[in-house]
Amino acid sequence: NEHKQVHSKIPNKEKKESFSNKNEMRWRCKLIFIFSQSIALAMRPSSMKMRSKVMMCEKKDLNLMLIVGRGTSPYGLTSPSPNPPWNEVVSSLLLRLKVFEPRIKGKIYFEDEKIEILNERYDAAVGFGLTQKRSEFTTKNTIMFLVDETSNEEVKKQVFCANYKVGNFLTEFICDVMPWSEAAKGRRAVRQSFDLLRRHSAEDSVFAILLALNAIVTKIPVASSDINPSWDKGIARNIREFKKMADCCGSEIFNAITDPQTKKAIDLLTSVDLRDQVGSYRVIVSNETPQLEAFSLCILQQNNCFDCDAPILDRPIVEPIKMWRGQPLDNESDRQIFIGHLDVSAAAATNYQKEAFSWKICCGANPAYDAFPMQHQIFYPTKKVDSKTLWYDPVFCVETLDGDLIWTKRHYRCVQQKIPGKYLLTTLDNGLVSKEHWTIVDAADDLEWAIFSYSGAAQAAGQSYQGALLCTRDGRWPHSAIDPNSQNFQRIQSAFNQCGIQLFELYGHGIPSHDVDRSFMWTPRFLEWAESNPPPLDRIGDISITSWRKQQRALDAAASKQLA
Q: What is the pLDDT of residue 272?
């Protein structure tokens, strides 16, 4: 009995401890199971990824499914044709994608249409302005589903990319603790695409899709160069690139990281994908130093430490204007069109007053090239007699990362090509050589307006770009082309279409109307600032950009000493 009594007194405590231990063991088992599953999920390629890798060599096409809402888009707010419907935006986007990557094929669906599911995979499904959630968006036949920020929240919850699923706790945990995993790679692709798509520019939308395809599906030549260290490259490649940098450019690296402003610029550039041309260029212009220029020149241009090889795109084929002022275009008249309104003897005769510049940009189509306000173009001949070369000094305003406005100037050499109306432009910009093919697409006989197209690359930085510009004497939309039915409006529209650009893809300055005069290039704020800070329109002349910058730094240093 005593044994029973003693035994009966202890069990309650033992049972509680036993129950607690069992619960603890259960939770430990659950955590071990979750962690093991996380590792397994992260370390193995998904079936989608394996399928895409197999198809890299077997297939020539990249299949896209583009789904659009029925509403209007926020594109082109400062264009001649603002707020186009989504189907027009995406139709043009698909054509531009094919220019950058000819393997791309795509189908466009309205979100309320029946969506065809192919036997083979879609390499990407991308939604724009979607308002309704549908199971077809996340079909197993799709490697990724991306959306822009105008789509509703329920649709955004469907976003996925390879192993990554938005809002999934387990997937987010994997991405945080294992940034080298397939899930983390998918999350980076999703976040980058969302950031680019929210800018509502055609060029950024193109690269949002190309960069995602390059990261997850297959190599895309115009999007594959990357000069930043990243998990996607792998440890071995990052170490190899760093070693090459240290071996080739040790002193330039030391000088850069010991200068506070240059170190700040490098840190900011590391956080920005340099294929994001707008973000990276703002960083560079906001932090220009001799050390940054020497750093870029050595690492990128002279030694190409990251093996970048960005091509100059040769599509679409843009033909130059054939006739001007009733005569076939020749090498003399094409120079006169570029020189425009500049007050030099080589300029063409016009009824307009001569200026200290050739043209002002009204609007353009490339965010990295045309998005800076108050752009002045200065084309002028060299001092050499019978030279086929022009100099080109663009002068434009930049809003720095600190919110300050500054004037910036560049210097290009322009060499006439065999076909009149075509020029090759080269420059050295912060240690990087850029080459660009320019074409005179059309120009009014009285030089009220002109349209120039360009296609270029900073090869060593892995950047390819193209676009077109509408230029006028005052930077405003041409008065003779305000009426959409006018001949000049039709000519301008046709010229941009020849460049593969729709009017709503432009930004800078729209058509004046009674209620609003849309502008980005020449806002009252910018013009008021320019009155007290006039642009530096003096011509650089027959010297290299490097020599000119050395002169400017010497003048700045002398001015600083006087103030001190």
A: 74
